[in-house]
Amino acid sequence: MNDQISTLKDDLAFMRALAQEGRAPPLLGGAVLVIAGVVYSTASLIDWAMTVGVIKGSNFWAGGVWIAAMIVQWAAMAGLKRYWPRQTKPGAMAPTNRAFRWAWAGCGYALITIFLGSLLAAQRLQSPLVFVTFPTIVFAIYGAAWTVSAVMSASRWVRWVAGGCFVAAIGMAASPSPADTYLAFAACLLLLMAAPGFALMRQEPSDIV
User: Fold this and answer.
1) Is 181 a member of any domain?
2) Is the pLDDT higher at 22 or at 129?
3) Where are the alpha helices (DSSP H) in 22-133?
4) 126-146 pLDDT, tens per residue?
């Protein structure tokens, strides 16, 4: 109880200082984006290696790479939540950060649903072609989440990241080959997820105001 009261006081003091300075609290949760960017870019590189023959494997294993990536991400998120709880940081309960959390949570739920639905469709049709547009869908949804984040935080550079996601979504569809798509997907995940997430981490306030 004392810890909760102390955290509440810290939040109030932090919000008071921000109100006096006339700016929104910084976005919290950059570590989540770093984890997602690194994990899924690694999965994309593994599938690229399988496509060009560096790693031997069937289409079944290519799909299994992404399931394994999701498991790794969930495990990393569980560890992050336990050892680095962002809810204790000043400004965590501000409307800006609540909107940020739910925008990205909704993004994650949507992508998991689309992936599982595509997996079932691929099995029913006996064809992996249903996944051809998946990178485009991923970055379109990322762009939507970054747009919400940009509006809530009033950060101009976040708007550029959102725009980059929409451009990347179209670029994924124009990729000349599956191998090129995997490489482009990995690069964009690092540039438009991990790198911005790291930038947000550097802007996060300390636990003490």
Assistant:
1) yes
2) 129
3) 30-51, 59-83, 95-125
4) 777 777 888 999 999 999 999
Residue 104 lies in a domain: yes
Cα distance between residue 190 and residue 106, in whole Å: 21
Cβ neighbours of residue 98 closer than 8 Å, sequence gap 6 or more:
none
pLDDT of residue 166: 97
Query: What residue has token string 């498991």?
Result: 71
Is the pTM above the cut of 0.70?
Answer: yes
Answer yes or no: is 209 within a domain: no
Asked if residues 162 and 146 have their Cβ atoms less than 8 Å apart, the reply is yes
Q: Tokens in use for 185?
A: 């997907």
Is 208 part of any domain?
no
* C-alpha–C-alpha distance, residues 169 and 71, integer Å: 25
Burial of 89-126, coded b for 16+ CB within 10 Å and e otherwise, reads bbbbbbebbebbbebbeebbeebeeebeebbeebeeee
Say if residue 70's pLDDT is above 60: yes
The total number of structural domains in the chain stands at 1
